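Predict structure. Chain length: 285.
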Amino acid sequence: MTKSWKEFRFTFPPQHEEHVTALLHDEATLGSYVESQSEQALTVRAYFEISRELSSLRDRFLAAVPQLVLEEGVAVDQNWVRKWRAGLRAVPIGKRFLVVPAGVRPPKATRRWVLRLNAGMAFGTGSHQTTRLCLQALEKFYRPGARLLDVGTGSGILAIAAARLWGQRRPSRAPILGIDQDPVAVEVARRNVRLNRVAPWVRIRQGALSETAGSFDCVVANLTAPELRSNADALDRVVKRSGRIILSGILEEEEEELLRGWSGRGWKLTGAAREGGWVALVYLT
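Prediction complete.
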């Protein structure tokens, strides 16, 4: 039986590449590749399960990316898979992590903690600046023994990285929870948890932040600026006093407005990192 996928073809000004990448990451695309690139325009093809409803994704892209041209279709061959897989590689991040897509061999002599991710995901594999900024913040601020909530877990990479920071120490119950509203992302994250053998440390659950009960020592949210704004009260509710909140998915031009919006919450800004036009902020509550 011939396999088919829903295909989106995006054409947009190159300066919006990072924004499109972040949106595709959020929407748990199965794979993508750059079809063509010039000084005036970048064209990217992205693929999704044939059964997936994509009207909300379509609306979100058209509203968020100026001058975007979007074409939809159905792909019935695997040329895109070969083109995408040809570019997969192991990605070192920070001082301790090495993100390795499934099917790629890690270096034999690495001393880094290997994070294996199913190659069914194009993003959330460490290739995007927001993911790298969050991993670096976790490396610096997360301490084994602390309860952690990963909001919008996507591929599960941040939850898995937090589990790696525990080393060989096994908890009595899973201290790390990853949540996502997308059932496709939840299934991908669960597969990656099994692939990395971190189930004793990590649970993945489908649901919204507003539906999440409990209190966490550390909360990491790699979302978009509008989503961070709308979820500020919920973030405040789930993090313990003297806990850490790691926020990413923020463009540099959005940073000042967000800082003003959070200034009255009593959070103390303890860290900020930037890469490629993106920002991650770390607060002590």
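Summary: The chain has a mean pLDDT of 85.
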